[in-house]
Amino acid sequence: MLIGDRGKYLGIIMGLTFASLLITQQSSIFTGLMTRTYGTITDLSLPEIWVMDPKVQFIDDVKPLQDTGLFRVRGVKGVKWAVPLYKGLLKARLDNGNFQICNVLGLDDATLTGGPPMMIEGSLSDLRRQDSIIVNDVGAATRLARPPREPGGRKIPLQVGDVLEINDKRAIVVGICRVSRRHPEKKSFQRHERE
Asked: Which of 30, 33, 51, 78 has the most neighbouring CB atoms within 10 Å?
């Protein structure tokens, strides 16, 4: 019956093809957005259990756990180790004087648990040096890049050895890493916190 009316047949085929394209495209957008929400967890895959403040509502909600909470977790029978992980938003001052808000992760001094999963340049152990940070490759090439030398030129990506100012403190780039993409307006670094 459909083959007898070529116009209707082609219309149905075109409609089904377009509907399939829309379904596939929308599901891929949904999958991409969902992977950005759990990117931090997959990059920091070492811990089996995460403990956080009961008022935390989503992964980028910055509500720190009290220090006494860490000691309570360490006191639970069967827990071999527990270390704090700092996650926050800080201001980085760029060479041109502008500021860029950055996601910052502070790691445990002894174990460096929570470090980036894949290093492009440098080593995770370089974080033990004074004032050191590791910047992700996307942030180094875009938002944190140095301004071009001539007007209309390309930005100069951050390199190992470059210096940034984060919350009015000097930070030396000791490595470039690759992490999962997160919210598009924020760039991530890993920073070693000394207390």
From this structure: 51
